[in-house]
Amino acid sequence: MAEKFDVIVVGAGPAGTACAYTLAKAGVNVLLIERGEYPGSKNVMGGVLYRKMMDDIIPEFYKEAPVERHIVEQRFMMLDQESAVTFSYKGLEWDQEPYNNFTVLRAKFDQWFADQAVKQGALLINETVVRECIVENGKVVGVRTDRPEGDLYADVVVLADGVNSLLAKSLGFHKEFRPDEVALAVMEVLKLDKKIIEDRFSLEGNQGCTFEIFGDSTKGVLGTAWLYTNKDSVNIGVGAMLSGLIKHKMKPYELLDYVKNHPVLRPYIQGCEQQEYLAHLIPEGGYHSMPRVVGNGVIVVGDAAQLVNAIHREGSNMAMASGVMAADTIIQARELGGDFSERGLDNYRVNLLNSFVGQDLKKYKDATHHFEKFPHYFDKYIPMMNRAASQMFTIDGTPKREKQKKIWNDLGSAGEKFRMARDLFQAWRVMK
Amino acid sequence: MLHIVACIKQVPDTKIIKMNPKTNTMDRSSAPAILNPYDAHAVEEAVRLKARYGGIVSVVTMGPPPAVKAIKKCIEIGADEGYMITDRAFAGADTLATSYALTKALEKIAKIRPIDLIICGKMTIDGDTGQVGPGIARRLDIPPLTNVKKVVEINKAEGFAVIHRKLEDGHEVIQSSLPCLFSVEKDINEIPYSPLPNMLKAARYQPHIWSVDDLEEVDRTLLGLKGSPTIVSKVWPPEKPKGGEQLQGTPAEQVDRLLEILLTKKELFAVKGGE
Amino acid sequence: MAIQDHRGVWVFLERKEDTIAPVSLELLGAGRKLADKRGVPLGGIVIGHKVKPLAQIAVEYGADVVYVYDDPIFENYRTESFMKAVIHACEKHKPEIFLYGATSTGKDLASAVATDLETGLTADTTMLDVDSETGLLEASRPAFGGNIMATILCKKHRPQMATVRPKVMKALDPEKKRRGEVIVETLKVKEEDLRTKVLEIVRDTTKKVKIDEADIIVAGGKGLGSKEGFDILHRFASVIGATVGASRDAVEAGWIDHHHQVGQTGVTVTPKIYFAIGISGAIQHLVGMQNSGLIIAINKDPEAPIFQACHYGIVGDAFEIVPMLMEAFQNALDKEVQYGGKI
Ligand SMILES: Cc1cc2nc3c(=O)[nH]c(=O)nc-3n(C[C@H](O)[C@H](O)[C@H](O)COP(=O)(O)OP(=O)(O)OC[C@H]3O[C@@H](n4cnc5c(N)ncnc54)[C@H](O)[C@@H]3O)c2cc1C
Ligand SMILES: Cc1cc2nc3c(=O)[nH]c(=O)nc-3n(C[C@H](O)[C@H](O)[C@H](O)COP(=O)(O)OP(=O)(O)OC[C@H]3O[C@@H](n4cnc5c(N)ncnc54)[C@H](O)[C@@H]3O)c2cc1C
Ligand SMILES: Nc1ncnc2c1ncn2[C@@H]1O[C@H](COP(=O)(O)O)[C@@H](O)[C@H]1O
Fold first, then answer.
1. Domain hosting residue B205, numbered range
2. End-to-end alpha carbon distance in chain A
3. Chain C contact present for B221, CB below 8 A
4. CATH for C31
5. Can chain B be said to touch chain C, i.e. do they have 3 or more Cβ pairs within 8 angstroms?
6. Fewer CB within 10 Å: C terminus or N terminus of chain C?
7. What ipTM was predicted for this assembly?
8. What is the pTM of this model?
9. Which residues of B have a CB under 8 Å from any CB of A?
10. What values do phi and psi take at C164, rounded to 5?
11. Does residue A93 belong to any structural domain of this protein?
12. Who contacts C119 (Cβ-Cβ below 8 Å, separation ≥6)?
């Protein structure tokens, strides 16, 4: 006889684990199924974990959890071929508890987080792939795994299976994502001595910093690159829209190689030893790509529901928040007598859209598409900015006033200036 | 009803291990801990014998607390019970001290349920000696049977087992009294993908955990580093070969050059005949 | 018992068919050096039925004294019976060092004996040395999957025991004239005291690959890509009269039987010519073939470590190079045959 649980959660990423943790803490009999060898073994993330959402689930988690460094400085680089304009904010208010953000290595962090869920009473099984949802009378009643005697039943199945969510797709919740709805990211974890990291990035102790890199790093494809510091390694990666990569016939690892060898970035990673190479999709369709998130006996959370804020590269926080909201909805539905139909679970959808997750996704709903439609930001304005900075800061005896004039002329004809102003205004509109 | 106990160990995956070139120590974080692959076959064989004759399969391990994971893996394969002995006193054990500690654990397990058969892996991939199994057998004064590649029969009623023992050029068929100890080859069986109920059982399972104080009549001087006659006096990286001549030119030129070289060394070709 | 009461270096003489196993002869060679350095006799122990003639062979290969346990009860190797003989001899004659071949028999016996004598045993040794003063045996072996070498000492227990991998030590040239002492020991072991019986010994005659005896080995690795990829190797091997070898990854991929595996967990080979084709040259593979007479590597990655371990290297695609080599050899062979010779 196949066993029945109250809830089965598929996927032990931040979304699934947050959900299972919350359910188990409330005494719900929950099973968490992960296909990897252990939670985090297959998971990829640039590496910034936002404190707030995790803190809501496990207060002061950073005292126990395997976080790498707390971030005190965020740099934004506008990269040209041999130069960069950089903005940075370093704030030592972030050097104190409760901190702001952390870098994490998912292979360690997810495993720890899942352990905490297990301590709350969730049951976790690894190395098991959920093949499909078992549907009876239009209702999801369980899951079918790839193991012998592999069926299991539950009142509710939570799909936290990440960006591709084949399971939600097979339920007809979404179609295959289009290349302009997903970014392909590749990254490497590079081993680097703790001491060297601290010297190169001007850090003390467990302070960390992040670089977000725009412009030449993606060679005209919409995307960004990043460089984050861990304890004794750095993460360097590039993510670019799949559609752009296809159009420009570019391979993601070629981009990464380019970034690693970029004369401005190279010195930061010199002498590193490659530890890991990872590739992953990021859902970037935003609000417009959100699939159906609730069905009879089923809820979709995290990346599976396309909950990523592409502009701010937030994902894990939204994943966790959605996982908790799903858990709360289920707990509530149980208390109200156990209506797990689409109606009974609809609160999840409502709460999600009303929360920061829904709000932010809505706010930036046109951003990715806007930037993809207007590549000027990358191939024109950033180089322009670099030239301007170069002229301004080159001390060659030219009076500053004359320099400004030259920069102004460099911006082109009146028509071009107008176009640029319009572009910037539109960018401001989609971002605001 | 047989009671079969498999001895299992958690080991760093030496396939992907990284060494620290300065200290010549293993970078533990680079190597995930896994169930010793040979021991998985020991457990699988025990589970198969259970299916054939009925009975109970237990596993025992000596190791640090995280080794619970390896025990759970054995429950996934189909073991019923898991015992772990863990204590600072065991640390630094060589094969002699390991077999002593495990023997004490096995004696205690035997009091819970008499043991008919003990199965070990051929060797561990970290210790890599294959000595612990026979060591345990000697201490318990039961016959050690190494290189077992097939179990023909276990006859508890008449108290004997028949097995095939692998030799360099074939095998021998051996009959032994029970209880006895097998060290099994990797090719004795293939480990199937565990059924889901086993996975759930393993996820829920809590092994029995004992410290030295839980064991009986232990001579502490025989444990751990103190009880180990061998010590590692130094470690060094294996010698790197010097490297030879890279042939130059187009593929055709390289081949010609190689042939030329080989033909000057005709004595090498005084062939004995190939396959 | 006091350590200084122990004297002499011993070798367990494993029988193979009607003679002494090659590994035991190699150990006599290695043991001879240790014994000379210490200024002590080199002993051998041979156990079996009608094995006395083997003692003389051992002497020719370097033994000063050979202890013989000759009895029908020792007809077949059994841990229980052999162990009793070895322990009997050790307790009576107290050797300081005791070496066994790291074969299934040697390892089995040594493990049991070490436990009963409560002494240290180093497994799979590949290097041996002794401190001439203290008599401390320095037994070195690959550890952690071959990633490092470790030297292991056994300071307070005797005899110091080690199993030694076949083919890494060198046997001496036998000298017919060498004289040594043969001591016949008697030990009564009763059949009813033994709990194991050898019912049958099955020699595997179908398995023709004796890769460790081959003069030329053509070995392939993961780079050959498939079982079909190995076909070209088999053809090449038959052209030049070679035996096919393989890396572990190729074996694990199921392209070829594991009898062909060369390396740490496979066989150690010392052919006159070793072709490594599509093999990266991992340390675990190298330890199994690095003593070959002439090593030729074919690999398309110029950075592959195998090029550090070979005498001649060709950077190129195996599927391009091997057929060319095959043809070139075939032509050369045909020419030679015309002149009545074989290369
Ligand atoms: C390169 C990159 C950089 C990023 N950087 C950041 C960042 O800096 N900060 C940030 O907050 N977010 C970042 N994100 C986004 C963030 O990683 C994701 O939003 C987040 O991991 C989503 O969590 P999740 O639990 O929904 O999905 P996942 O983390 O993808 O977890 C899904 C889990 O489900 C398992 N699974 C899938 N299918 C099955 C199945 N059929 N059966 C069983 N198990 C299954 C998977 O193995 C996996 O463990 C980044 C993403 C990428 C790719
Ligand atoms: C404890 C332990 C014991 C081990 N024991 C052994 C052992 O006994 N024996 C053993 O071999 N290994 C052993 N290994 C495994 C060893 O570490 C390596 O993984 C293995 O030897 C690699 O096999 P490979 O060279 O065939 O494959 P790879 O490392 O994948 O190398 C394939 C090579 O083929 C080349 N190539 C690809 N295509 C072509 C082409 N068309 N033409 C030419 N070249 C091509 C590639 O450049 C590459 O160098 C052991 C490992 C461990 C941890
Ligand atoms: N610490 C341990 N705990 C349990 N069993 C062990 C342990 N060490 C070795 N063994 C068993 O002994 C076999 C041989 O190990 P080794 O002598 O280390 O190669 C292994 O395959 C296990 O079955």
1. 2-222
2. 55
3. no
4. 3.40.50.620
5. yes
6. N
7. 0.81
8. 0.83
9. 32, 192-197, 199-200, 202-204
10. -125, 135
11. no
12. B96, B229, C154, C157, C158, C159, C160, C161
